[in-house]
Amino acid sequence: MRFHPVLLSLLILALAPVACQRRRAHEWPVIGAARDGDAVRLEQLLKEGADPNTRAGVNQWTALMHAIHKGQEGSVRVLIAHQADLNAAGPGGMTPLMMAAGYGYANIVRLLLKAGANPLLATPDGANALTAAVGGTADIDRFTVGKCQTETVRALLEAAPDLRIANNLRGHAAILTAKLAGCREVVNLIRRSR
Fold first, then answer.
1. What's the whole-model pTM score?
2. If the chain, 194 residues long, is cut into consecutive pieces of 10 residues, what is the mean pLDDT of each piece?
3. Contact indicator for 86, 115 with CB cutoff of 8 Å
4. In this structure, are residues 76 and 106 in contact, taking their beta carbons and an 8 Å threshold?
5. Cα dihedral 81→86→90→95 (10° resolution)
6. Distance from CA of residue 191 to its chain's centroid?
7. What does 29-91 look like in DSSP terms, one character per residue?
């Protein structure tokens, strides 16, 4: 089978970030262990002095963010126990809590909140963890836009009753997304918190 040169170039460009991410995970063992959910290896690396706040990858996420991205609750627990910065912002100001909320990982949201993550932090455009939970995340690995992430929203509001969605375009879009998806319970939780 022959590929047209332009199509082959586009395919290579599309796959390059994935290949780089895998290569970099091996260059930074903490990131690789966090992403793979290898809590035993991660614990060992951290006990040997590895930095729990290592940043790597095309997006320069922390090890905690990489663990959350892959839904690795065990890795999150280990990183919390080794004093990972729970509020370290990544590109655009996103925090680990915002990421976990956007993916709808209610258990990880609860772990982060219990460990001291600040639910009131916001990105420069006013989005916070509640905005992320209500609006969802348009990530190719875990697309949650239009998902009713009721338990995540409830966990955030129980921990921070004064948490609000910003009265701006991003906030309105999150609420509209929940309404259009038929997430009545989420919309009611937000209304009650106002």
1. 0.86
2. 46 47 63 97 98 94 97 98 97 96 98 98 96 96 96 97 94 97 96 82
3. yes
4. no
5. 130
6. 25
7. HHHHHHHHT-HHHHHHHHHTT--TT-EETTTTEEHHHHHHHTT-HHHHHHHHHTT--TT---G
